Each structure stands twice: as C-alpha cells, then as structure tokens.
From TrEMBL:
Keyword field contains Ion transport: no
Alcohol dehydrogenase iron-type/glycerol dehydrogenase GldA domain boundaries: 7-179
InterPro entries on file: ADH_Fe/GldA, ADH_Fe_C, ADH_Fe_CS, Alcohol_dehydrogenase_Fe
PANTHER family recorded: ALCOHOL DEHYDROGENASE, ALCOHOL DEHYDROGENASE 4
Assigned keywords, A-Z: NAD, Oxidoreductase
Domain (Fe-containing alcohol dehydrogenase-like C-terminal) ranges: 192-387
Protein name as it appears in the record: Alcohol dehydrogenase, class IV
Taxonomic superkingdom: Archaea
Regions crossing the membrane: none
GO function term, MF aspect, one: alcohol dehydrogenase (NAD+) activity
Native source species: Caldisphaera lagunensis (strain DSM 15908 / JCM 11604 / ANMR 0165 / IC-154)
Similarity-based family: Belongs to the iron-containing alcohol dehydrogenase family.
C-alpha cells in the first residue's frame, strides 16, 4: 500500500490576508493564533497582514517567541501564554522551525493527553479536520514543511538536546499560502541555502527507494523550477522568480515527504550539528559528491539522466556529462561555495571528526532510502572529498 499526503489547499500568487479572509468566510473562522518569530513580526508584510485581518473583524493573538531550532517543549509555553484563548485557526508564518512547532502545537491543543515526543507515524491522533486548523505562510523557499507531515525539533535525551525528526499524516497543514511579499526581506544567503535544500530534497527524492510516479512528477518539475529561477531570484528578486521558487519549494515538500530523501541528508545532519553549519549549507556542499557516488546505481543513473535532459531544455543551460556538473554550474552562477574549506571550517578539527560523522551518517534514518548503501570507507572518502 502507498499513502500519499499533501495539504488540502495550496494558494499561490496570492495576497495572504485576502486568502485568510476567504478561508475565514468559507469555514467560519474568527479567532486566529499567529505563530511566528521576532524578526518576521517586525516586517511591514506582517504588520499589514495583522492590520488587514483586524480591520475585517478577526480576533488575533500573536506568539512570536519562536527561536531557531527550538525544543519541542516550547509548545507547552505557547499554550500557557494563550491564557484560555481558544483559536479556531493557527496561522504559522515563518521558516521550518516556526512551521514545525505549529504542527505540534495544534496536535497538543487538540490532544493534551499526548506527550509531544510520542507523536510518530504510528500514532492515531484523530485530529483531522478538527479546529483549530493549521495554515502556513512560509517565509523561506526550501524547507517544504508547509506541505509535509514531518517535523524536526530538538528533544532532551540523556541530558543532551538532540535534533529529532518524525511526523504523522494528521500533522499536514490544511493549507499552504504562498505570498512572495514575505520573501522580499529574506537575506540573500538564506534565500540560496533554503532553495538548495529544496533542490536537494528533489534530487534525493527522485532516486529514493520509496519514490513513486506521484512524487517523481512533482520532484522533477520542482527541480526544473529551482534550476531555472534560483539564479534570477538571487540576482534580481523579480516577482516571477520568487513566485516560482516559492512554488518549487512547496512541490518539493510534497514530493520528498512522501518519497524520503537519502545519503545527502544522512551526512548533512551530523555534519551540520557537529560544525554548526546551517542545514541548507551542509546539504549544498555534500550533494554534488553524493550524486557522483550514486551514479553507481543503474536506477539512480537512469533517473539523473532524465533530469539532465529536462535541464538542458532550459535557456542558458549547456549540455553536460552528468547531473553533478549541472549542479556545479548552478553553484557557480549563484556564488555558492563548493567545499568546506571555503566556509571557514578548520582542516585539522574536521579531519579528527570524520570517523564520528561517518558513524552517525550510517545510523541516520534517511540513509535507508538511498538507492545504494555505502560502506564506512565510502562515506569517509566522500567526507574527505568535500574538504
Ligand atoms: Fe533538507
């Protein structure tokens, strides 16, 4: 049996406040809880959204204390801060951290009897279609969390905080609203690394062992859009490029959350946490080398070659020998570094930790979806190459 999940509605090329008011009328929603962070709360786009909603009779409570990479327990603090306010809609405005907290928050409001950390694919929550519903306005183009059932949050384990990834089909947001005004203030580096993460989700998902026609179609289209529009989005921030990037990220979220990812993510998780490298940057640096490695698999080779043909139809793309070379062309166009030495990682310190990263990568759950299983020595070799 194959289950495919995605949000019930996706609105793009829209003004977020107009779409929220539509939804309010359609579903009789009047009490919104907006979850966001301090930076977004200060933007003009946020202020005008809240004004517009208030003017139209919506009751609003804002929680804006979400920090990057939060602990799952933050949901208890949010519920306490609500002081008895009963929302019928949670509006999550932010990147992956804000969105993932909002998913658990909704589950916890509806199921206070459940321990947040126990929310896994195997638990029946019985919260589907119950209020508060969750809608997401993503402010980066890459995590895909607006369209997925997954979450990555920190949990406590033996007195340490570790990153924990899990999910549940009932956590999929009701709607993803793609309004590019929220992308305009995103710093360039953030724009690039979140988009490359989205692209990595596509290129890994296409060759993942759980890939199927639904995920493959979306991932190929999404990858095509990232390659086509990312350079322009970086250089000009044109509305057209941002709108396409934003949609590509959501397509990617639907695709990879249903197909799984692979070795790029299995390496990027320990690499990122041991050297404090942002997830999108870690993914970006390892990806070309993993693609080169995966060419050993006939299945991966045939899929990569299909994408190569799609890319070569885009204006300004040349014919290349393999998909890795296309990726390097893209990095060169947007000024993205290729190696760890280029982002200030100390060589000796890195070399000392290569075996630890390798061990952690071999234990990472994402590795199970890679088309081939690498040996300890093969991962070590990949890690040497990326310095
Ligand atoms: Fe990722």
């Amino acid at each position: 049996m194959v289950i495919f999940s995605m949000p019930r509605r996706i609105a793009y090329n829209v003004n977020a406040s107009e779409e929220l008011l539509n939804l309010s009328t359609m579903l009789n929603l009047k009490n919104f809880l907006i979850v966001t962070d301090k930076i977004i709360e200060k933007t003009d786009s946020f202020v005008s959204l809240v004004n517009e909603l208030t003017k139209n009779g919506i009751n609003i409570k804002v929680y804006s204390e979400i920090i990057p990479e939060p602990n799952i327990d933050i949901v208890n603090k949010i519920i306490e801060s609500m002081g008895g306010y009963v929302p019928d809609l949670i509006v999550s405005i932010g990147g992956g951290s804000v969105i993932d907290v909002s998913k658990i928050l909704r589950a916890k409001i509806l199921r206070p009897d459940i321990n947040s950390q126990d929310i896994s694919p195997f638990l029946s929550l019985n919260i589907e279609n119950k209020k508060p519903l969750l809608v997401v306005i993503p402010t980066t183009s890459g995590t895909g969390s607006d369209a997925s059932f997954a979450y990555v949050l920190k949990i406590k384990e033996n007195n340490n905080e570790i990153k924990y990834a899990s999910g549940n089909y009932e956590l999929v947001p009701y709607e993803s609203i793609l309004d590019i005004t929220f992308l305009k203030t995103l710093p360039k580096k953030q724009l690039i690394i979140t988009a490359i993460d989205g692209l990595a989700n596509d290129l890994e998902g296409i060759v993942a062992i759980n890939s199927n026609p639904l995920t493959e179609g979306l991932a190929i289209q999404s990858a095509r859009m990232f390659f086509k529009y990312l350079p322009d989005a970086v250089m000009t921030r044109s509305d057209e490029s941002l709108a396409n990037l934003h949609l590509a990220a959501t397509l990617s979220g639907i695709a990879f959350s249903n197909s799984g990812v692979g070795l790029v993510h299995a390496i990027a998780h320990p690499l990122g946490s041991l050297f404090d490298i942002p997830h999108g940057m870690a993914v970006s640096i390892i990806m070309p080398y993993v693609i080169e490695y995966n060419y050993k698999s006939d299945f991966a080779r045939s899929k990569y070659d299909e994408i190569k043909i799609v890319l070569e139809k885009i204006d300004g793309f040349q014919e290349r020998n393999n998909l890795k070379d296309h990726l390097i062309d893209l990095y060169n166009k947007i000024g993205q570094p290729l190696r760890l030495r280029d982002i200030g990682i100390d060589k000796n310190n890195y070399m000392r930790k290569i075996e630890e990263i390798t061990e952690l990568a071999l234990r990472d759950p994402d590795l199970a979806f890679n088309p081939i299983t690498p040996s300890f020595e093969e991962i070590k070799e990949l890690l040497s190459k990326i310095y």
